[in-house]
Amino acid sequence: MTISTGSSSRRRRTLNRRLDEGRRRYQCLRQRRSERQSLPALALRVVEQRGTRLKSRTTEGQLFAVLARPHIAALIEPGTVDWIRGLMARAEAIVITERIAACRDATDDKFLELAVNGKADLVVSGDADLLVLNPFRGIPIVPPATVVRETARR
Q1: Is the dihedral of CA 97, 103, 107, 108 positive or negative?
Q2: Nearest to residue 53, comparing CAs of 108, 110, 118, 101?
Q3: Which residues pair with 92 in a beta bridge?
Q4: pTM
């Protein structure tokens, strides 16, 4: 019969702590790898290759405000934010002249305004409040998965 001492339980705690740290690092790496392979990121790449992205001061401001929220910023790799900044720098700026109040979430009207004022061919969004309006004034509103799926079929 063996009597265990405190040293083996210390070793066990140390091993468990190292395992937990390794799991956290692995999950973080997986998340970073998958961020740029997400459906929204893939859809953005498709749009970037095939068309012009539109922005207004309001939509660009909201995008970077949301990305800066602490609970969201903690999930996003700094390189991803730089990539988005580059996308936005190359987007065509649209001046909003026609105001729209059509969305059940009034804070989403800015995206409809951008689409109409910019004469968009398509709006890509995962927002249910926008998707229920598909099509809006003849402009299709589709989720990122649809853009990726349609591209894969070609």
Answers
A1: negative
A2: 118
A3: 54
A4: 0.70
For residue 84, what pLDDT is reported? Answer: 87
Beta carbons of 130 and 145 less than 8 angstroms apart: no
Phi, psi torsion values for 139, nearest 5 degrees: -100, 115
Structure tokens at 71: 């609970």
- H/E stretch holding 147 reads helix 144-153
Residue 114's Cβ-count burial label (10 Å; 0-12, 13-18, 19+) is buried
**Beta-strand relationship, 92-93 and 54-55:** parallel
Name residues of the chain where pLDDT drops below 70. Answer: 1-16, 18-36, 154
Compute the distance between CA of residue 115 and CA of residue 55 in angstroms, rounded to an integer.
9
